Amino acid sequence: MKSITVFFIAIFIANISIAQTIEVCNTCPVSTLKEAITQSKDFDTIIVKKGTYKEHSIFIDKSLTIIGKNYPVIDGEKKGEIITIKADNVTVDGLFIINVGTSYTEDYAAIRVRNSKNFVIQNLVLENLFFGIYIEKSRDGKVYHNKIIGDAVEEYNSGNGIQLWYSKNVEIEHNYVEHVRDGIYLEFSDDCLIKNNISTLNVRYGLHFMFSNDDIYQDNTFENNGAGVAVMFSKRIKMYNNLFKENWGTASYGMLLKEINDAEIIGNIFEDNTIGINIEGSNRITYKHNNFSNNGWAIKVKGACYANTFTENNFLYNSFDIAYNSNVNDNVFDKNYWSNYTGYDLDKNGIGDIPYRPVKLFSYIVNRTPETIILLRSMFIDIIDFSEKVSPVFTPDDLLDNNPQIKKLTW
Amino acid sequence: MRSRWSYVYFAFYLLLGVVLLFLNNDLSKAVITLMNVIIVLVPLIGTIFGVMYYYNSQEFTELLLAQPIKRSSIFLGQYLGVALSLSMSLILGLGIPFVFYGLFESSAIWDFSLLLITGTFLTLIFTALAFNIALSNENKIKGFGYAILLWLFLAVIYDGLFLMTLILFEDYPLDKVSLIGTMLNPIDLSRTLILLKLDISALLGYTGAVFKQFFGTSFGLIVSFVMLTIWVVMPVLRIVFKSKKKDF
Fold first, then answer.
1. Domain count, chain B
2. Do A295 and B201 touch (CB under 8 A)?
3. Which one, out of A7, A215, A296, B120, has a CA that is 20 to 30 A from the CA of A183?
4. Which pLDDT does position A8 carry in this prediction?
5. Into how many domains does chain A fold?
6. What ipTM is given for this predicted complex?
7. Which among B28, B36, B201 is the top mutation candidate for probing chain A, defined by the most A β-carbons within 10 Å of its own β-carbon?
């Protein structure tokens, strides 16, 4: 009998040592998150009850699961970084983190993951932040269902919502980011998936890639940012079914591509942007099944862009469909629908009988003298556009869509 | 005479509206096409109609002048009669097909009302200008010639000169110049007003602060309407002034 009791106790102790649960609340024996972490061992669970915890510089150096019940508030009192994760297999769930310190020498974040694997950061709400979720030199993590609300006004003294630096294979899904510098920022980060996020009202970019390859972003919404998405110096990025909307301003665009090679841009919607896509030095990109509607410029090509193909896109009621700043063209436009197309289809095969020229003389003039934009849609401009259409001099004469569609494409 | 021609005018706009909607099946595209019509055709019709009406009713006018009626009320009455009946034809002729098409449930209703308002302004302005030309020229052929020339100048040539100036002086800051240039021509002004609604995305792409203030806020809308009103009032005042002094 005694031995059985001992056996049970032994099992009980063993159980505790394997997965202990520590509760933290304002009146509990353990009243701070820091204390709980010091007492815990690997693979423990810490449950944080509702309340306010004034803590910062919390280091998580064990494989812990931290779960907040009813969104406990972790208030950093603007004193610096709040949570730093330095161990593998850490899960942080359901916290309300506010007041991250601002610094001009260090990037303080609400939650930072450093040199870790298999982390999960989910259901967090971050407010009053400098950087939100900062993932550096980590891999195989998940960032789900977080809400990041910043108060950024200027670029120089604000941080990014979700930032990845030298990280690999991170999934970022269903997050909502607003009022920060860059909603989501990837630098030297490969094989990441960014899906179903909403990034809006940010000072700079909704999503920003730098030197990151083989990433996918899809089904995201980028609305009313300084500029929607900037993809720079990256290779093989896949961009599917995103919505770029109302990115208005003098240097604003739905998407900026700079030094991008071998990307795929499929099924996206560009609506009411000053410039839908601004392309510079980007090669071998496939544009397919995109909708460009009511943009100032649907696509602005700034030069050094070769072997791009634009097929089966809809260009609807843009002030300018395509703008080129040179008369050399190496890109293919085929089978698109252009709402400005004025040709006819006598053989009724759904394809216009005369090719469409998407680049107008006026867009060339506006490139040279921007003030002339005020003459947009004037009768005189229509006349000179027509004469340029008949015999191209200033615009690339081989830039033609030979198979313009008669009806708007659906897919 | 007046009523018959305004029926023709009305029928023309009715047909135009129906055909546009029938061919396009898309309200926002139809609004763009209509804009082209309004800024080109409305001034032309207003000009021709005004001149024609004045010359046709000249003898009757002289008869009226023998009666104890104030000169200004005779000429203003004639002007308003032409201008308002043209405006009514425009508003009803374009309005009816669009209303039947489901304008009130559409988001394009503001764009469309703006089109009609600018169209009405243009009718008022160009009829007044035509009356001015007719009052100053006894010779009908000359009068017609000047009227057509005026339309051609404001609708096409002005923009050409404007464009040349902008390109010629491209090294200088031009945003103020281009805005003032627009203000001085009622057709350009109406076009800009409509552009503020249709192509705002493109217009916001330009960096100039004056542009931004003009296009980004309701300031532009207000200034444009004030300018259009001035454009109506000035020629009308000249009609009153000229008609008082003229010998018949």
1. 1
2. yes
3. A296
4. 58
5. 1
6. 0.85
7. B201
